[in-house]
Amino acid sequence: MSAALRRFFLLSPALAVILFLIGVPLCLMAWVSLLDKGGTSGVDWSSAPSVANYVRLAWEEDFDGTMILNTSYLMIFLRSVALAAVTTVLSLALGLPVALWMASLGRTGRDVMLLLITIPFWTNLLVRNYAWLIILREDGWVSKFVNMISPWPVQLLYNDAAVAIGLTYSFLPFTILPLYTVFEKFDWRLLEAAHDLGATRRRALRRVVLPIATPGIVAGALLVFIPCLGAFVTPALLGGGKTLMLGNIIQMQFGASRNWPFGATLAVVLLGLMLVVMTAMALWRNRRTA
């Protein structure tokens, strides 16, 4: 038996599982996105396939039958990308110094910090978001303090800022852990050598620390940005229905609206966006390593 054939037989069980659990549902979702809305079932399986649901993302039919531009879903799409990008930047800005500090601790200090970072995962995401509702509410101490130092009234809840705070809190550990994995093996003598050669702290950070941390930065950014695009619990609670993201619209289509084809269309678009982001990151990494 050749090596290629042996490799195929060894990988065939895993490939079959991946095809059955991932490939088939994705193909079914893509097929449903081409159908029409049904009655109680949510899908009219007897309808002819069409791209009407994809057209509906940007166009809608006027009273006289003409198609007019509808930017509602485009704005939700841009808001989702913007909030995911802001969350990623905030997570990296907060996670990088924390991970670097954790790597400088002793073994006991590292273990304690890892425990503290993973403790929030012991609690359901819904409970954690309700906790932020209490923290950011209008009569809470945080809101009172911010309004005391602010020259104008500030509302911390039910806006994009509250959603960004909640998303950053939820996904911050996904940034810290990959960065800590990189910094755990960091040779601190490199920083000493950089300082001996006259490098300032900022220059040592830019020329020594950041190049070494690049794999962790890329992994952390992907682990934060991609889940943020499909988040719906945090925007629903902290946004108060005013800040809708793609995940909220998809949930509404499969829930109250009972329009499964349009929900599948949004899911396909969201999946395509994720694939574009991952492909761009892979190409960027290949170009850097080439």
Question: How would you explain this protein's 3D organization?
Answer:
The protein is mainly alpha-helical and 290 residues long. The protein is built from 12 helices and 2 strands; from the N terminus they run H-H-E-E-H-H-H-H-H-H-H-H-H-H. The protein has helices at residues 3-32, 52-56, 72-103, 107-118, 125-136, 141-149, 160-183, 189-196, 201-229, 233-238, 246-254, 260-289; strands at residues 59-61, 67-69. Strands 1-2 form a two-stranded antiparallel sheet. A hairpin with a 5-residue loop joins strand 1 and strand 2 (67-69). Helix 3 (72-103) packs across helix 9 and helix 9 runs antiparallel to helix 12 (260-289). The chain is globular, with a radius of gyration of 24 Å. The protein starts with a helix and ends with a helix.
